[in-house]
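Hi R.,

As promised on Friday, here is the backbone we talked about, encoded as structure tokens. Could you run it through your design pipeline when you get a chance and send me back a sequence?
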């Protein structure tokens, strides 16, 4: 019998955002109310483009970034 939890490859996606956010908060550089500009809804990182699924969300708090799972927001936090 195959144990899919350890044998199947999957992308963690949004599950890793909570850990990334915890790291940012733990650094002392950010608070849950810190604001991040996610405009225009995408961000170039090297040769890749990170996008928010539902477009431009504008300026968001870290709390809201986690609530709506903003790819651009969490990427900007982790790159700063």
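Update: got your reply. Pasting your designed sequence below so it's all in one thread:
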């Amino acid at each position: 019998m195959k144990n899919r939890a350890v044998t199947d490859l999957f992308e963690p996606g949004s599950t890793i955002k909570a850990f990334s956010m915890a790291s940012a908060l733990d650094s002392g550089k950010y608070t849950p109310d810190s604001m991040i500009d996610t405009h225009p809804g995408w961000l170039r990182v090297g040769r890749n483009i990170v996008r928010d699924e539902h477009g431009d969300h504008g300026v968001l708090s870290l709390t809201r970034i986690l609530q709506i799972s903003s790819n651009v927001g969490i990427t900007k936090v982790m790159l700063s």
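One thing I noticed while checking it: The chain has one domain: 4-79.

Thanks again,
M.
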